[in-house]
Design brief:
The chain is of the alpha+beta class and about 400 residues long. The chain has a domain of about 270 residues: Beta-lactamase (3-Layer(aba) Sandwich). The protein is about 30% helix and about 10% strand. The protein has a six-stranded antiparallel beta sheet with strand order 1-3-2-9-8-7, sandwiched between helices. The chain has a three-stranded antiparallel beta sheet with strand order 4-6-5. The longest helix has 16 residues. It is globular, with a radius of gyration of 20 Å.
Length: about 400
């Protein structure tokens, strides 16, 4: 069995064993990482590669969780109103019924504007301002608010433009200033050049993903209707491994970091018992309420979204109904579970062959984490360092 590096607090030995088994599995990633905080304290920090302790990689849609944490904070502040029409702060977002769409409905992936006719260039996909300009006048692919479907490459640009119009600052700027920088977290929406030496390029799956039809809703959402997209796996790998994508950090698809950094963001969201959480209980309740129990028109998942965040408890029944997070394309999975105080992030560098969303091994990893957490071990006094450096022992 492959050696596993890092630490697991007392009571979390089963998590180390589950991680080692996942890495050694038939679809295992030799560069995988796992980090868990409980009540804001680090209880698991594991990596598979000997030189992977401080490595960072592309996290794809994990960015959506960071972006919508920003939106939740701005709603909590009173800066944004969930039931205000988007067009009141972004007048260009109009036509075809879009002018009546509220921010709440937009966050629920109900706009129907999942892409544009003819697709985006890679340069557009990397730049939320360019995406928003193309999307503002686009005819929706279904009548707004009547159904929902995953806005894979565009939701962060849409909600981000609302943030920019309302505050004069981008989601990326808010995330950096209010969440990432004060805590020194290795999770970036816009990777500085100074951090490039730590970046490990993402790797393709062990089998080709193949061509996705561009005349389907899922094809439009994943930009398969663009002329430069042939093999979907090659396209995604090339997009993430481009410096321009990492530098601009598009809020739908451009997160870069490691498991420790992402878990740290979710730990900050729900608090550590001594430092106020970024989100109040009322805000968490609002943003974790499922928006539609029906079928996602793009992914065909059921009960897929709350407000901006994915509903995680339907995939992992050990979690509370107010858990919230977001997966990433390589099979990365990350979330906060307020009921248990657990913040979790599993990061893969190589694309999983298990399809979209969190890779299959997350099921066993999360079960092991929640079993350890339920035993009441590894609580606030566990781990070699507190999450918040300024109060570390």
């Amino acid at each position: 069995m492959r050696d596993v590096h890092g630490f697991a607090a007392d009571g979390f030995d089963g998590v180390r064993a589950a991680f080692a088994a996942a890495v050694d599995g038939p679809d295992g990633d030799p560069d995988a990482q796992l980090a868990v905080f409980q009540q804001g304290r680090k209880v698991v920090d594991l990596w598979a590669s000997p030189d992977g302790e401080n490595a960072i990689t592309a996290l794809f849609s994990t960015a959506k969780g960071a972006a919508h944490l920003v939106v939740a904070m701005l709603v909590q502040d009173g800066t944004l109103k969930l039931d205000q029409p988007v067009s009141e702060v972004w007048p260009e977002f109009s036509g075809f019924g879009k002018e009546h769409l509220t921010l709440r409905e937009l966050l629920g992936h109900r706009s129907g504007v999942i892409g544009v006719d003819g697709g985006f260039t890679n340069e557009e996909l990397a730049d939320d301002r360019l995406l928003a300009a193309r999307l503002a006048g686009q005819r929706p692919f279904w009548e707004p608010w009547t159904a929902y479907g995953y806005h894979a490459f565009v939701i962060g640009a849409l909600t981000g433009e609302v943030v920019r119009r309302a505050t004069g600052r981008s989601i990326q700027e808010h995330f950096e200033e209010r969440i990432r920088a004060p805590r020194g977290l290795d999770f970036f929406l816009g990777l500085p050049e100074s951090e490039e030496s730590r970046f490990l390029p993402v790797l393709p799956p062990t089998r080709r993903k193949g061509r996705m039809r561009g005349d389907t809703l899922i094809g439009v959402a994943f930009n398969a209707n663009a002329p430069q997209v042939d093999d979907m796996g090659e396209f995604l790998v090339g997009f993430a491994n481009t410096r321009n994508t990492r530098a601009l950090g598009p809020a739908s698809s451009g997160g870069v970091g490691n498991a420790r950094g992402v878990a740290g963001v979710y730990a900050a969201a729900i608090g550590d018992g001594t430092t106020p959480p970024l989100l109040t209980g009322d805000t968490i309740a609002e943003f974790t309420t499922p928006q539609d129990a029906g079928i996602d028109l793009v992914t065909h998942e059921r009960n897929h979204f709350a407000l901006g965040f994915e509903v995680t408890s339907h995939a992992y029944p050990e979690l509370g109904t107010d858990s919230f997070g977001h997966a990433g394309a390589t099979g990365t999975q990350s979330f906060a579970d307020p009921a248990s105080g657990i913040a979790y992030s599993y990061v893969r560098r190589r694309f999983s062959t298990g399809g979209g969303g969190g890779a299959p091994e997350n099921t066993g990893l999360i079960a092991a984490v929640m079993e350890a957490a339920s035993q009441g071990r590894g609580g606030p006094s566990a781990g070699p360092a507190a999450f918040f450096p300024e109060v570390s022992p």
